[in-house]
Please model this.
Amino acid sequence: MKKMKYVYWQDEDIWIGYLIEFPDDLTQAETREVLEENLIEMFRELDDGKSHLNRHVGEIELS
Model:
């Protein structure tokens, strides 16, 4: 089973979080448990390569 870390916080009645590997993609929920479910679903969408939200890391040589 693959594990992935996430950052989360509570803002009044809403839980907000993102996966460490995808810091630009936030999700939110009314409970932490639902937030975790949302994060799992978001990872599946991002990991399959079909999402327009996928970001990549490139490298360039500076002269």
User: Anything to note?
Assistant: Helices lie at 32-47. The chain is about 25% helix and 25% strand. The first helix runs from residue 32 to 47. The chain has a mean pLDDT of 87.
